[in-house]
Amino acid sequence: MNLQFPELMRTQPYVDGRWVQCGRSFAVNNPADGGKVADVGDADVPLAESALEAAAAAFPAWRDRTAAERCRLLHRWCELIVEHQEDLALIITTEQGKPLAEARAELANAWAFVEWFAEEGKRVYGETIPAPGTDRRIVVIRQPVGVVAALTPWNFPSSMITRKAAPALAVGCTFVLRPASATPLSALALAKLADMAGIPAGVFNVVPSSASQAIGRLFTESPRVAKFSFTGSTAVGRELMARCASTVKRVSLELGGNAPFLVFDDADLDAAVAGAMASKYRNAGQTCICANRFFVQRSVQDAFADRLAAAVKALKVGPGTAAGVDIGPLISTEALQDVDALVRQSVAAGATLVCGGRPHALGGTFYEPTILKGVSNDMPIAVNEIFGPVSPLIVFDTEAEAVQLANDTPYGLASYCYARDIGRIWRVAEGLEYGMVGINEAVLTNASAPFGGVKQSGLGREGSRYGLDEYLEIKYLCLGGMQQ
């Protein structure tokens, strides 16, 4: 990697304001060619424990700073992210694989979360409540929960971090992060910029590690951790949530999705196709909120399928650093095998390939952008989260059927609806059992909007003023003896 600011290429854990040398390391590889990018220091449980200790020690002083002081430091962190966004984007693309244009878009989201919460942290308001008598006063205040521990995924290795860390730091919490072992370099680069911004030692710590289960157990069971935040699969989230019960700590979970994309007969089909492309094929389909099942009303299914196929066939597949590339590699060989198995199993069950349907001729972990027709809601491609560039098309006849099919899943993260009739839009949006509904819009992530799901897609919200509440405790003060 040829970085303009080589200091961003950090390969050791960042604990209590220091870069810690480790006795062992693990390799970070470029998914586009399999080549090794770097060897990263492999934090063990004792080092992660020391990071929690540092965060606990730093908490009182950080909590007691004024909101304005914390705001200024977060703004400086944001400015440095913006200043070095080209280097940060190259790091993302190199370790994760997405095209540079998408990496830049992720960085825009990453610094937007820091900017938003820097300001919102100054608006942690309390309230007074009318008391039952004149001899007392009732006051409610909100205070930071304490040490926050987080596990973040590989698909958005920068924005997933700032979406959690920025609100925590803004309200006065301290933070310990274990990033995904496939993409730790982005996290360590953010730590370098946090250090340059003047965020005090112990406030923001990063412990990359290949020991995911051991670190996860520490974070969920340690009494030092007041709040645990995780983004990842539902299966892992269930286990982590159960472990958090041992200390009854606060939990935020952003888990799996099976997003429906509903196209009604009154939809603007060109807009629907554009939305489908933006949702489904971003990051090669490796997005928790990307469309997973396309429900298309029977009268427009052929027209929609034809237009979508034309757009999908025009996509350029290749390394994320190459010019004009739309689809990069999948993160690993295992990921490619999982996607290919879902496609093959569904074709065997009766689905028909419109285009794609196999590993790409480029080899490695590249997969052809794919469309399947004749899919039913019980086929493997519809039941499972695909996490690949595959669009399964399912036909429906009535509005009620579309909503029923869309809700026929244990997941409830994101959903999408394309229609023009205002009554239909309201009915469908209210009927969809999802935490987020995109109505004639497929790009949902925004720092000022609440991101999160229902059912087995998680707990809590990230982004917006509601995301700030995840890191605050409510305290009730009853003042007696107020009468003279």
UniProtKB/TrEMBL annotation:
Source superkingdom: Bacteria
Keywords assigned: Oxidoreductase
Catalytic site positions: 254
Family indicated by similarity: Belongs to the aldehyde dehydrogenase family.
Record flagged with keyword Iron: no
Entry protein name: Succinate-semialdehyde dehydrogenase (NADP(+))
Lineage, uppermost ranks: Bacteria, Pseudomonadati, Thermodesulfobacteriota, Desulfobulbia, Desulfobulbales
Alphabetical list of InterPro entries matching this protein: Ald_DH/histidinol_DH (IPR016161), Ald_DH_C (IPR016163), Ald_DH_CS_CYS (IPR016160), Ald_DH_CS_GLU (IPR029510), Ald_DH_N (IPR016162), Aldehyde_DH_dom (IPR015590), Aldehyde_DH_Superfamily (IPR050740), Succ_semiAld_DH (IPR010102)
Any one GO MF annotation of this record: succinate-semialdehyde dehydrogenase (NAD+) activity
One of the GO BP terms on file: gamma-aminobutyric acid catabolic process
SUPFAM superfamilies: ALDH-like
Entry-linked NCBIfam families: SSADH
Coiled coil: none
A Pfam family hit: Aldedh
Aldehyde dehydrogenase domain boundaries: 23-476
Gene3D superfamilies assigned to the protein according to its UniProt record, in alphabetical order: Aldehyde Dehydrogenase, Chain A, domain 1, Aldehyde Dehydrogenase, Chain A, domain 2
